[in-house]
Amino acid sequence: MSIAIVESLKNLKFKHKIFLILAILFILIINLGFLNISSVLNIQTDTQKIADSLIPRLIHTSAVKDNINLSILAAYDYVQNGDKDSKAQYKTYIKKAVGAEVKLFKASSSEADFEFTTLFETQINDIYASLEDLIRAFETGESPEQLQNQLQNVSAKRDVFANFLNEQIEQKTQDSSLQERLQTQKRVQQTIAIVIGIGILTLVTLIFIYIFTNRTITKPLEKLTKVARSITAGKYQVVDIDNNDELGVFAETFNTMIQKMRAVQESLQIELAKTKQLDKQKSEFLSIAAHELRTPISGMKWLLDMTVAGDFGKIDTDAKEQLQKGIENINRMVVIINNLLEVAEIEAEQLQYKFEKINLKKLVKDLADHFEHAAAARKIKLKVLLEKIPNITIPADISKLFIALSNIVDNALKYTPENGVVTITAEQDVNEIMIKVADTGLGIPLEEQARVFSKLYRGSNVEALNQIGSGLGLYIAYQIIRKHEGDITFVSAPKQGTTFTVSLPLE
Fold this sequence. Notes:
This protein is an alpha+beta fold. It is rod-shaped and about 190 Å long. It has three domains: 2-219, Up-down Bundle (Four Helix Bundle (Hemerythrin (Met), subunit A)), CATH 1.20.120; 243-351, Helix Hairpins (Orthogonal Bundle); 352-505, Histidine kinase-like ATPase, C-terminal domain (Heat Shock Protein 90). It starts with a helix and ends with a strand. Residues 50-55 have low confidence and may be disordered. The protein has a five-stranded mixed beta sheet with strand order 2-4-5-7-6. The protein has helices spanning 2-10, 14-81, 84-107, 111-139, 144-232, 246-308, 317-347, 360-377, 398-414, 473-483; strands spanning 356-359, 381-384, 393-396, 421-428, 432-439, 487-493, 497-505. Helix 2 (14-81) runs antiparallel to helix 3 (84-107) and helix 4 packs antiparallel against helix 5 (144-232). This is histidine kinase. Its main location: membrane.
């Protein structure tokens, strides 16, 4: 039976589970509220009952006491002055005392009350008898000594009565207070017992709610969260949730999505393997092609250089100019071939680095000397601020770093119009050195700046300068600088030039 109930609860819709939990908590709160109100009302009722029974008795007792005292005073006045009105007052007060005593008797509700009333009546009768004896002695003309004796007797009876009342009233007050405390204690104990019972019921209910929510809500959510996190790590595993609620439907949909993602991932892995294989084959082809092209092109360049130098005979000026253009094109081909070889080695991770301490100022000077002729030929001012360059050493592979910086400077010269300026400088920071190459060239379009260091990138605004390039120079420079644990950044704006910054660690 209990298993069937648990299964039926487990199959509830998610919103119904939440509603059930809230309903149970609401019922518990209402019951606790009613319990508190009921306990307070019961204590108030018991206290009121005790007060209702005690206060009237105290009032009636006080009335009897007052009337007795007044009757004694009236009798004294009658004996002393012989005033008939005093005797009449005496009779009136005695009747009132008896009437109050009757009311006290009627207000009695327990055996102790009746016992008190009986003793009270005896005391009143004793006082009444002594007063009657006093009046009789006065009216019969007894001697002053006998009247004095009667007066003393009345006074003694009055004192006994007063002591009796004080003792009884104090006792009654204590008894009533004790009774009130006992009733309150009893109610408190009953309330505590009920609270403990409700507390146990609440604890059991909360345990049930915890187990219920843990099994049907928390654990499924934890499973989903765990699987979702594993996806970020590339693990596409399904989640095991057999709920029939919204979580179950979500888990089923989630598993379907994971299975599709797994299939897509496997397909991507296959395609990636194919792509890597094609890249490898391409790199191998480029390396082989570049090597095969380098030898004949070197031979062609050697022959053209010898021809221009007149080693094979004198040539006219026009022929010499045409041969010179041929040499320039061959030089461009050599640069492209070298770039292809370097890219192939980078992608195959075969580019070897040999780090050593190199002088920064000498490196920049060699760089400026290398491009001095090219800058002059293009009518561009190559400005090198050697005096601002720190005379320090940095760890680097000098040949690779020279290639990277050469590609940046060559790029600046290519895309700076005539009469432009290319500036090379360096600054030392706390932990790094920053080499800057700034030009006044075309700048790089904003929408293309994210692709500057990718392979085969050439700006869309360079056609106007009619410059030939492979689109590999900055890619090679970026890879080399990264191998030096450095960084290469730039700022550029169209028609305002570009500044490249190469940051290298000092140690």
